[in-house]
Amino acid sequence: MSVQPEVTYEKALELLDRKLRELEDGQLSLDDSLKAYEEAKRYLKLCHERLEAARGRIEVRGEAAAPSAAEAEAPF
Amino acid sequence: MISTQSDQARPPLTVSELAFEIKRRLQPLAAVLVKGEVSGMKALRNGHYGFTIRDRGAVVEAFLFAGDARRLPMLPEDGQEFVFRGRVDFWPQGGKLRLIVDWVEFDDVGKLRAQLEQLKQRLEAEGAFELGRKRPIPFLPRRVALITSPTGAVIHDLQETILDRYPNMDITVYPALVQGTASPGSVVTALRRCNQDAAVDVVVIARGGGSFEELYAFNTEPVARAILVSHIPVVTALGHTSDRTVADMVADAECRTPTEAGSRVVPRKADLLRQLDERSTRLQRAAGGRLQREADRLAVRADRLQLVPRSLLERRAERLRRFVAELARLRPADQVARRQRELAELERRLQASATRLVRARVTDLERRRAGERLEQLVADRLRRSEQLLADRERRLAALSPDGVLARGYAIALDDESGRVLRAASETAPGRKVRVRLGRGALRTRVEEAG
């Protein structure tokens, strides 16, 4: 099962919790347990990736939109 | 007033002179306060504004320079009543008298509030304030936009709060004027641009509070509409000193201070990491526990296996060994080889017995024949021997030196070699010679040989 790139941190955490609950319930077969474990690990990794995705950049887009300052030209 | 006094010597005024004179005479009206209702408000080139001020009995044209307009806390709108400060001036080129407004104050804040209430009611009727309409604020935005003044404490506090909570958060600042008449347009433009860029998951609109007039922009319909149509969730932070603005009411989340807004849009990264650590621990424990349970189950089986009687195992093992041997024996190649070995052995034995048999027969035959021949041979031999013997006896008798010797002959023999001396030359003086006589013999020494 591949993890879609658009999965958000929140979604990945939710999926991780679901797998975790399944594992903790202890009702899974050994094979299913191992599968659930691998998936949970993938979601955990995804969460970490989401946390580190941003690079701490601060960008300024455009300027404060003000009406033209050239008011010297009076309509007289 | 222009003098009406007739003076024939004075030439008539030019229009320009008249206009100049009018302007000069208007100087006492250089700083007036006028109260009236706005109508015909329109934006002109270069950011100037033109409108009229009226009351029940009169209308005065008014003009607002762009530079003055930017300094005003709010832009007059049609139907609103204000107290205008300005100077009365005559515009020679247009031939018009105008009030050049440089400051505007609400004449009646209560009335303005009433108008604001009307706007709110209109928006409410449209469902603009309904919780169901509001966009959810993302739990963890990939990037945050700030629409505020690019300088000052507000943006500083916002950035500091966000980066303190989430050190690697990306921030895009869309600078905007947050007070003055240009403010609504500036905020609308910034929010629109932010939506066009579509590079952020949440946007904060902030300013550091202010009076009702200073926050005027955030009570205008254009700003409210821009927030409503934004695809990106909007969080307001317009200060705790003022009332709620319409912008606050239509926003998806409403905060008072930049710090509060920063906390609202960005989670504390350390908390998230702790959360993940806790899950990681649980995951390892759950998976480990499951494996341990499996290991325990295996151990139980191993113990039971130990309890199976050894003899049973050995019997099984023996049977197995037999089966293995039988299987090996039944292997075709082995069978052929074994048969070949048996055949070879039989052949060898057959050969051996045949050889023995033949040899026995041969020996037997030979033995029988040899017996007969031997008897014959012996008889013949005997017969011949008897004949030869008789003959020899006869010849011996004839040749015997004894007879000759008896007749008086002697035989000289070299004593050393025993040879018969047939000539004197065969011996020499001094040598011993035996002389056989008819009876007895002599041992002599040669004195002379010749």
Summed up:
Chain A is mainly α.
- The helix fraction of chain B, in percent, is 40-55%
User: What is the H-and-E element order of chain A?
Assistant: HHE
CATH architecture of the largest domain in chain B: 3-Layer(aba) Sandwich
Name the shape of chain B in a single word.
Answer: rod-shaped
Sheet-strand content of chain B, in percent, reads 15-25%
CATH topology of the largest domain in chain B: Rossmann fold
Largest interface: A-B, 46 and 60 residues
**Helix percentage of chain A:** 40-55%
Walk me through the structure.
- The complex is a heterodimer of chains A (76) and B (450).
- With 76 residues, chain A is mainly α.
- Chain A contains 2 helices and 1 strand; from the N terminus they run H-H-E.
- Chain A starts with 8 loop residues before the first helix and ends in a 16-residue tail after the last strand.
- Chain B has 450 residues and is α/β, with parallel strands linked by helices.
- Chain B has 4 domains: 97 residues, OB fold (Dihydrolipoamide Acetyltransferase, E2P), CATH 2.40.50; 155 residues, Succinyl-CoA synthetase domains (Rossmann fold, 3-Layer(aba) Sandwich); 90 residues; 35 residues, no CATH class.
- Helices cover 48% and strands 19% of the residues of chain B.
- Chain B contains 12 helices and 13 strands.
- In chain B, the strands form 3 sheets. Chain B has a 5-stranded mixed β-barrel. A 5-stranded parallel sheet of chain B has the order 7-6-8-9-10. In chain B, strands 11-12-13 form a 3-stranded antiparallel sheet, with no helix packed on it.
- In chain B, strand 9, helix 7 and strand 10 form a beta-alpha-beta unit.
- The N and C termini of chain B lie far apart (225 Å).
- Classes of the chains: A mainly alpha (76), B alpha/beta (450).
- The interface between A and B is large, with 46 and 60 residues.
- Strand 1 of chain A pairs parallel with strand 7 of chain B, so a sheet runs across the interface.
